[in-house]
Write a structure and sequence with these properties.
By secondary structure, the protein is of the alpha/beta class. The protein is built from 26 helices and 17 strands. The longest helix is centred in the middle third of the chain and has 51 residues.
Length: 750
């Protein structure tokens, strides 16, 4: 409405929104906000009818996607489940501190005719000229307040570092905090200053990690993690070791005694936490900040080793863009069925061919036993084929039948909710009567002037909690559950048709990021197990975003945490995290961003009815190879050459014809003859010299090796292959009880 006149004298349908930023703050803050709002309503004479009360506890106002109460309020307003004229908050900061606050208020006003009224401004008209100026000032104050607080905190940390005290944050592994002084001020927070000192238990472990990284130059962070996870002399309380964590520890200068602080800055950009590197001139370096665990020389040697192994991953332009672009459409949906971690696509190539498989990243560090490699192409074709078969009908009759099935599923779930609501109303009515009696008694107690201050404070707290609960029960009892109206707002046939058409178009295209988003609306997850099983879980109602979102919001965070988890095997378990937001253009609407945030949430389908899902098991096909697939063709060519030349064919010649290596041709002939070792074609050379069990040859190899003769030269002298010499030397060092020296250790010395 372009010329809206907001009339504060008429009856207004409103909702209340309450928020507490930090769970360390006063736990009664939301109740106090509600009490203040209701008090201001009575004092100002505002004629309102409160439809619902939404609240978020311990959540920052700079982000929206993690505020369940806020999202539920916006979703119910957008879908028409709540028809109100205004949202009442204590202050505009309680509504939010996000940078998009201006845009949010404008969209609510222009698209839904809803204004935000604040109790601290006595619910003044925000549509008037004065009100708009005041709204601009409130929005600026709400967003800049966090910047001022951050600056004050930063200044205090600078002073703490200058005094050689730990500035705060997680203590580096291998150290502990030693309290130096405690400053207690009446009415203020207690200030504790600590020094960083080596930990008696974790310190030697961290030193061993640096020493191993120094001596084993070719070992990366994953191999180090696997090595220390397997060590039995390290207590389990320090395990598991994670490769990425070890990588961060190895480059942390605190272990050489130097504090490097303020390297990065964080912020919220379009509802996503962003980490950026600060300018080098802004980074603080404090040498001799604490006792080092490793020497400066050892630390620099480890950094040199890591730099030598590092690949240059910078883009050609050198520019970084916000968001993520996926290369594979199932990224983030494939999970390990044992440790619950997201499986990563891993690629290998030969000539022009690229082979990609999903692997469990925890298997490399020894934290998970799932060594299955799931081919990306096979898995993508399997999942897409299942989606096309079950979600995208071929004709109009099938489309109508599918929409009817979705509607019936939602209708049945609403019926169950309604029956539960009818069953609980008598209980709530009885609870309301009990609260009334209790509050009457508390009022009499508070009227006693001789009541002690401590008892009075306790009674007031109980009175506040009971008042909030009474209002909540009254709102539930007054709600009119119109199932048909709600069903029409949740399942919209035209929207279902549009999304399925869009899904079909996206799956036939080449945009992996967009395909991932649309698949995430339907695919809950794809579990892969060590025995080659793949379990696909697909939501039938995924094309109705509002229905999925509404039912998910009916589950409180406490209820969701109590829901039974999927059975997984193995000791180490990963808690799924929200995926990074895919790259989107600045012009995308808030509605699109809301859907993107929803589909990247790993718990988006938790708590929904089980009959809303298809669950299908598949088996990873047996791995094949070129030699196995072309065995008959190679054997036919081998016999053809043998018949035409009356001589034993040259495997090198056949390898050139098929454009493969000689060992591949030998393996193909092995497959063709039905066994891996030896074959009727006699294509493998018989060994002329036996090494194992031949003491004379073994002694000769030992003497040549002691004379520093290279393995390939020893092989030429003996007349065998280099691999045979390597195997003989391994057996030799096993007899000595020491590992065979690895030449790869010196590969990265340059």
């Amino acid at each position: 409405m372009l010329r809206r006149q907001f009339d504060l004298t008429k009856l207004l349908d409103v909702v209340l929104y309450l928020r507490m930023s930090d769970d360390k703050q006063n736990p009664l803050s939301p109740e106090q906000q509600e009490k203040m709002i209701r008090s201001r309503i009575n004092r100002s004479g505002l004629n309102v009818k409160i439809a619902r009360v939404y609240r978020d506890d311990g959540l920052t106002g700079r982000m929206t996607r993690n505020r369940k109460g806020f999202l539920k309020m916006i979703h119910e307003i957008q879908t028409g489940q709540v028809n109100v004229d205004a949202i009442l908050v204590d202050t505009i900061e309680r509504f939010g501190r996000m940078e998009e606050l201006d845009e949010f208020r404008r969209r609510l006003e222009h698209e839904h005719n809803i204004v935000i009224l604040t109790a601290d401004k006595n619910f003044s008209d925000p549509t008037s000229s004065t009100g708009r100026v005041m709204a601009m000032f409130e929005n600026y104050r709400a967003t800049v307040d966090s910047e001022i607080k951050a600056h004050n905190v930063l200044r205090a940390k600078y002073l703490t570092i200058e005094q050689n005290f730990w500035p705060g944050g997680p203590v580096p592994f291998g150290y502990r905090l030693d309290e130096v002084e405690r400053i207690e001020k009446p009415g203020a927070r207690t200030i504790v200053h600590n020094h960083l000192v080596p930990d008696e238990g974790a310190g030697p472990i961290m030193q061993a990690i640096f020493q191993k990284s120094k001596t084993e130059r070719s070992w990366g962070q994953e191999r180090l993690a696997k090595y220390f996870n397997a060590k039995t002399d390290i207590p389990d309380k320090y395990k598991p070791f994670i490769g990425a964590t070890i990588g961060r520890q190895l480059k942390n200068a605190i272990y050489q005694g130097e504090l490097v602080w303020d390297q990065n800055c964080t912020g919220i950009v379009r509802g996503v936490r962003v980490l950026e590197a600060n300018s080098p001139k802004d980074v603080i370096h404090v040498p001799d900040f604490c006792e080092p665990l490793v020497s400066i020389e050892d630390f620099q040697q480890v950094q040199a080793n890591r730099i030598a192994r590092t690949r240059n991953r910078k883009s050609e332009s050198g520019e970084r863009r916000r968001g993520i672009n996926y290369r594979y459409p199932l990224t983030g949906l494939v999970r390990c069925g044992h440790c619950n971690v997201a499986m990563n696509p891993n690629s290998s190539s030969y000539k022009d061919a690229v082979y990609t498989s999903y692997i469990c990243p925890k298997n490399r560090s020894g934290m998970c036993d799932n060594a299955t490699r799931v081919p990306e192409e096979w898995l993508r074709e399997t999942v897409v084929g299942f989606i096309l078969k079950h979600l995208i009908p071929n004709d109009d009759a099938g489309r109508l039948a599918f929409v009817e099935e979705v509607t019936e599923l939602v209708r049945a779930a609403l019926g169950e909710l309604q029956s539960e609501d009818l069953d609980t109303k008598p209980v709530l009515a009885a609870e309301l009567a009990t609260l009334g009696k209790q509050m009457s008694g508390w009022i009499q107690s508070l009227s006693n002037p001789k009541l002690s201050a401590s008892v009075r404070e306790l009674v007031e707290m109980q009175m506040t909690e009971a008042s909030s609960r009474r209002n909540e029960i009254e709102e539930i009892l007054q709600e009119d559950f119109d199932q048909n109206a709600l069903l029409a707002s949740l399942v919209r046939p035209e929207q279902v048709h549009e999304r399925l058409d869009r899904l079909s178009t996206v799956l036939s295209g080449d945009n992996a990021t967009e395909a991932n988003l649309f698949l995430s609306m339907h695919v809950d997850k794809i579990d892969c197990f060590n025995d080659g099983r793949v379990r696909l879980r697909v939501c039938k109602v995924g094309s109705s975003f509002h229905a999925v979102s509404w039912f998910a919001n009916q589950q409180s965070p406490e209820t969701i945490n109590k829901l039974p988890r999927d059975p997984v095997s193995g000791g180490y378990q990963t808690k799924p995290r929200r995926r990074g937001r895919p790259r989107v253009e600045p012009g995308d609407s808030l509605a699109n961003l809301e859907e993107i945030d929803a589909v990247t949430d790993p718990n988006r389908f938790r708590g929904l009815p089980e009959d809303w899902f298809w669950v299908e098991d598949f088996q990873v096909p047996e791995r094949s190879c070129w030699a196995k697939d072309n065995a008959e063709a190679v054997l036919a060519r081998y016999n053809e050459i043998a018949e035409s030349t009356k001589r034993k064919p040259s495997c090198n010649t056949i390898a050139k014809e098929f454009d493969v290596s000689r060992p591949t041709i030998l393996n193909a002939l092995d497959f063709a003859n039905g066994k891996r070792k030896g074959a009727g074609t006699k294509h493998r050379r018989e060994p002329k010299i036996r090494i194992k069990g031949n003491p004379d040859v073994e002694k000769q190899i030992e003497e040549l090796h002691a004379a520093s003769v290279l393995e390939k030269d020893i092989a030429a002298v003996i007349g065998v292959s280099r691999s045979a010499i390597t195997a003989a030397l391994i057996r030799l060092y096993e007899k000595r009880g020491v590992p065979k020296p690895d030449g790869r250790r010196t590969r990265h010395q340059r």
